[in-house]
Design a protein that fits this description.
mainly alpha, 3 helices
């Protein structure tokens, strides 16, 4: 690849939907949970943040609810 590209002659437009795709947040996870996803990430080659997002997306899609054993 070239070290420098000249984009000055292009009529580039930013993707208007880019900010709607994902939202950055801070989430607190226990070490065991984070370790699980990091190990899974090593095995699959998928970033652990993406794995967590995939899992939570599936839960939301299937409308899973937690059982607290009460």
């Amino acid at each position: 690849m070239r070290k420098h590209y000249d984009f000055s002659k292009m009529n580039a437009v930013r993707n208007p939907y880019a900010k709607l795709l994902k939202q950055q947040i801070t989430i607190r996870l226990d070490c065991e949970t984070l370790g699980y996803f990091k190990k899974l990430a090593e095995q699959t080659g998928v970033a652990y943040q993406n794995l967590i997002n995939f899992y939570l997306s599936e839960c939301a899609r299937k409308k899973k609810r937690l059982s607290f054993g009460v």
